[in-house]
Amino acid sequence: MNHIFATDYSHHIGDILHIIKNFKNEGTLIGPGTRNIVKWISINNMMLNFKSFKQHNIINRHVYKYYRKSKAKRSFEYAHLLISKNFYTPKPIAYVEFHDCIGLTNSYYISEQLENSFTLQDVFLGKNSFEDWKEIVKGYTLLIYQLHEQGIEFIDNSPGNFLLKKMDNEYRFFLVDLNRMNFHHQFEIYDRFKNFARLTNDPDILKIISLEYSLLSGISQEHCLEQIVKATKRQETKRKIKKVLKFYKYFLK
Fold it and tell me: For a disulfide at 103, which of 61, 109, 170, 186, Cβ 3.0-4.6 Å?
């Protein structure tokens, strides 16, 4: 076993390892739990978020032990990196890895459970319920632009991976699901637009994003919108192809 804890939480090692040992029977499930399993669990009046990553095949188990950092370790390190650059993410508490002679068996990322928050997906799906949804979309666009300017590509840039919490009369955006990021010395504009591919197909939202990104970057709104729409359409085509392949794979078993 390998584990690293944030300094101010090192005295909770025993409690956290005990929960991981009994993870199947502990905590409250968040989401469907079909791939990775995410739960919130209370420890000594603290609300913590535990993410158990899906077990890998035998090849990737070996890779993640000897050649690549585990998803849990990357999540922990990227969280600290984001915070050091004045971005927000739930406070990283620890990561824990288990290995056998072949490779990685299980890994967990533990962070603060952000209470009284909602997702950007909630805003996108329920625009009529949010009077200030346009301002929220503008705030999201500013965040992504600032990440891009720092050379940070948040690969899982989908609305479910942004938590919002109103603090001091403004919305603060917290990034979650951090294990996939790229870091660029020079983040080319074409690749920046590709980063929006997983976000949404809603034309009203895309128009606001393209206008705001245009104002921030100095690139024409028409070009921003055209490139972002192209990226989302390519992603949608990939999804459809993947569904068809899964369909045939199921019946060809």
Answer: 61
